[in-house]
Write a sequence for this structure.
């Protein structure tokens, strides 16, 4: 459930390329274990610095997305985050074991600079993630094309992800606050 807490947010899931044994990855993994195993002290605040989230996200992405995702980075904001990466949508589909018809393959092949900005609202053990902007190759994607991309590329990789729908946070988590420097997980008292 703790891993879902962060991977549900698309901007965390896009990161890739850090060494899995880095101290930053180990710190995030340890903190997530505390949350998952209900070992975090009631009323405590667990802080995830942006640099640690970047390293952890890159390491996890290697496990989940072995091909099609490169050069990611994450920028946190006040209640928001923006993920950047080079994405080859055809390779992502291939890595997920999904066949792509010839016409669609020709339209989506090759690396494209992708920027995804999302906000997160959370309280009382629930959160909602809203995509506020998606750019592919510098062009904004909205409406039906965005829905297609989410359903075709993101959801097959993260079937439990919730976008624009409230979802339960890990047991014992009251809320998550995001600032430019860090994400803070507030444990229920």
């Amino acid at each position: 459930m703790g891993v879902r807490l962060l991977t549900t947010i698309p901007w965390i899931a896009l990161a890739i390329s850090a060494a899995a044994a880095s101290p930053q990855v180990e710190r995030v993994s340890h903190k997530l274990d505390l949350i998952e195993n209900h070992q975090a002290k009631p009323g405590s605040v667990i802080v995830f610095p942006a640099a640690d989230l970047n390293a952890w996200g890159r390491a996890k992405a290697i496990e989940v997305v072995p091909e099609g995702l490169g050069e990611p980075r994450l920028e946190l904001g006040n209640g928001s985050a923006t993920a950047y990466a080079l994405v080859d949508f055809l390779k992502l589909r291939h890595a997920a074991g999904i066949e792509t018809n010839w016409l669609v393959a020709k339209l989506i092949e090759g690396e494209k600079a992708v920027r995804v900005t999302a906000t997160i609202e959370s309280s009382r053990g629930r959160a909602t993630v809203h995509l506020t902007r998606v750019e592919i190759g510098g062009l904004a994607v909205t409406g039906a094309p965005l829905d297609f991309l989410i359903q075709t590329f993101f959801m097959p990789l993260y079937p439990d992800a919730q976008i624009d729908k409230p979802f339960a946070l890990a047991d014992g988590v009251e809320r998550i606050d995001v600032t430019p420097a860090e994400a803070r997980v507030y444990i229920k008292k």
Remarks:
- Residues 2-187 form one domain.
